[in-house]
């Protein structure tokens, strides 16, 4: 599921999903934020396991379903996040 932020000083790359549902679905206006050390603005993104956006921003709005991960020079690859189309067998969540 969703990973809390690492303590200061931990050398890892985190891929934050907003809103933090699991799995993320496109109709929720999913935003991915890559957090890690290294030069800001030098975030490489991978989609479905292949290099997708070499010098991308650290934050962007997802427009296509797939699996995403990011790579920061200082901390390496993030965990993979899946973003699904809303139609693929995921009914509308019931409201409590």
UniProtKB/TrEMBL annotation:
UniProt xrefs under InterPro entries: Ig-like_dom, Ig-like_dom_sf, Ig-like_fold
Domain annotation Ig-like: ranges: 28-82
Organism superkingdom: Eukaryota
Protein name: FCRL3 protein
Organism this protein belongs to: Eulacestoma nigropectus
Taxonomic path: Eukaryota, Metazoa, Chordata, Craniata, Vertebrata
Gene that encodes it: Fcrl3
């Amino acid at each position: 599921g969703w990973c809390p932020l690492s303590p200061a000083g931990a050398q890892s790359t985190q891929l934050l999903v907003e809103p933090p549902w699991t799995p993320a679905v496109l109709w929720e206006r999913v935003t991915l934020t890559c957090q890690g050390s290294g030069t800001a603005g030098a975030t490489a993104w991978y989609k479905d396991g292949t290099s997708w956006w070499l010098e991308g921003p650290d934050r962007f709005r997802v427009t296509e379903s797939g699996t995403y991960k990011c790579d920061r020079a200082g901390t390496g690859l993030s965990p993979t996040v899946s973003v699904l189309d809303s139609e693929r067998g995921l009914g509308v969540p019931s409201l409590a």
